[in-house]
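Researcher: Next entry in the queue.
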Amino acid sequence: MISEEYLYAIALRESSQIGDINFHKLVRTFGSAENAWKKAKREYKKLEGIGPKTVADIGNENHLKLAEKELKFCEKNNIQIKLKHLNESPALLSECIDAPSILYQKGSIDESLQKVSIVGTRNMTPYGKQFIGDFFEATQSAKYVSVSGLALGVDKETHEQSIRYKKPTVAVLAHGFEFLYPAKNRKLSEKILQEGGILLTEFNSTRKPDRENFIQRNRIIAGLSPATIVIETGFGGGSVSTATFANDYNRDVFALPGKITDIHSQGCNQLILHNKATAISTIKDLINMLGFNNPKEKIAELFPYSETTIQLTDNQEIIHQFIKQNPQISLDDLAQKTDLSSHKILPIILELELLGKVKSFSGRQFIAI
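Model: Structure for this entry, 369 residues:
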């Protein structure tokens, strides 16, 4: 039997003006969701930055009735309810300031395994599909859990390759468990559970897959893992928001670069250009940066190269030599030493990253590889 704390937590979170940050503030102040539900309206002055309007809807009996239905639905459908303030949420996700107060979960995984989030466009090209296949083949001896969003394209391929290579996979949903979106992924969702993965959502069972839920969902995908890999996305694509969340959480972000004329690579190239993601030059390098142990020795090189075959342009050679001679040189120092403006240097840096010659760090600092 689920304790009453879960009942009051669901009701409290349903109250208008009570988002995750206010929820955490309430339970910290009053010690539990139940106490917050019963006392906050009278004792709101104990709460810093919260006034009577914010707590006005707390105690609404309709929210309590919804919570009762939700508990019954979860018990009937073997759905676990995890409360952050009871330390039941995944540890890494709980570190995020806007972490979900409540998570609903079907299935179970070994939470001690490292997670890797993999996201990208719904309109995946053969280039992206091959990269995902090569990545999972190369990491088949490593133990980790993949995380994605159960959408079409990159998400679907990530979950399918995880199943193929016997990796647990987490599908983070943008709706409650009464729905499954997109419907054509229903069989895949069942397979995820059968093969030891989980379905996870912060939305109660009645919540539909509304447009605004998807961006909100993306912060969970970013928050669950120490690293996020972005595989093909356009300017302003949903995966760019996932990368932004990951950056805000101080997590690693890697992006698969592509042709500047390819609309499905422009978002990745932009993330790399603005130092919001590290360019993936080879799968071997990516595996090393992820910290996986004992990867398969035969690894597909995304950008194979040798010193004798790469011919740099004059400007590429100048920039590369300055970076080689001055490890972790900044963009401003490069501009000063080369007499080239910053906006002319940045595209050259991107080209060198794509060639596997240079690596960018936060703060616009660079080293030669």
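Model: The CA atoms of residues 149 and 172 lie 5 Å apart.
Researcher: Noted, moving on.
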